[in-house]
Amino acid sequence: SAKSGGGNGVAVFTDAMRAQFELQDDVELNLRSAVSDGSLLLHYQPEVDLRTGRIVALEALVRWQHPTRGLLPPGAFVGVAEATNLAGELGRWVIRTACAQFAQWRQQGLASNVVIRINVSPVQLVSLDFVESIEDTLRSNGIDGSSVCLEITEHVVVQDLARTQLTLRGLKRMGVQIAIDDFGTGYSSLSHLKALPVDAVKIDRGFVQRLGVSTDDLAIVKSIVGLAGSFGLGVVGEGVETAVAARTLVGLGCYRAQGFLIARPLPPEAVETHLAAGRIPLDLELPRV
Length: 289
Ligand code: C2E
Ligand code: MG
Ligand code: MG
Ligand code: MG
Fold this sequence. Notes:
- The chain is an alpha/beta fold.
- It is built from twelve helices and nine strands.
- An eight-stranded mixed β-barrel has the order 1-2-4-5-6-7-8-9, surrounded by five helices.
- A hairpin with a 3-residue loop joins strand 2 (55-66) and strand 3.
- Helix 3 (87-107) runs parallel beside helix 5 (130-141) and helix 5 runs parallel beside helix 7 (161-173).
- The protein is globular, with a radius of gyration of 20 Å.
- Bound molecules: ligand C2E and magnesium ion (MG) (3 copies).
- Residues 45, 61-62, 73-75, 78, 94, 119, 121, 151, 181-182, 205, 238-241, 258-260, 265 line the site of ligand C2E.
- Residues 181-182 line the site of one magnesium ion.
């Protein structure tokens, strides 16, 4: 162990690596049953209009209530799912669960003007029956496509542009919105943005977090907001942790935002409280316009 190694750096590294491999084995062994035995759950993170605090969207974020390891974040198992043929199953579970929950909130009158955002992995997007399975899920829950936004990463776009185009066009025919997640971190060129029916970009939280600290990041965020504007795309700031970041986004004309300053990802019951209020008041002391 690290201790018996006397604080030796190599031993510590080895322990960390062993723990990582153990986790990976565990995930491979147990994720399949987790999908069916009720130990996966979704948290929902509100997205607001910073000017009013009004809730405009909810992002579904998957977690795994692991029997011995506690509540695991997606970073601990989504990658393994993708590497072991489980991404399809996991993805279908997420879409079905998020849509069922969203439909229930709609029926309760809690989410009338709110969009549900769902993360989609590259593996799902290239599967031939993806569009049809979305259509089925929307129909069986009575949800219109325009109330749903699927989040994809730039990575997907680059892997198989032709296939991605086909899938996204199928989704657009149902009115489903598409957002590019973690925008600014991938390799997609502007020509990809132009070639795909994308509705919005979400500025990667790495840039947003450093607003007020780094002028480079300010320049990047400013140019993404400008780019979105000239392409007629919506823009959302992710990872808003400070009032400075929020005020800066508003100053740049990026009004939609998500982040710990506003609300953490929350279990359904806790989100309902926010939905019932319709807004999450923020005291940003914005300049009056
Ligand atoms: P993402 O889609 O970019 O989601 C935002 C992540 O940033 C979430 O992490 C959220 O908890 C975190 N976050 C939000 N606000 C803040 C903030 O102010 N500060 C900081 N430091 N973090 C913030 P989470 O839930 O761990 O998810 C990580 C990633 O896992 C997601 O990034 C998404 O790419 C992926 N993911 C989550 N759920 C799913 C899913 O159902 N399917 C797939 N394929 N991927 C998922
Ligand atoms: Mg996302
Ligand atoms: Mg993101
Ligand atoms: Mg991400």
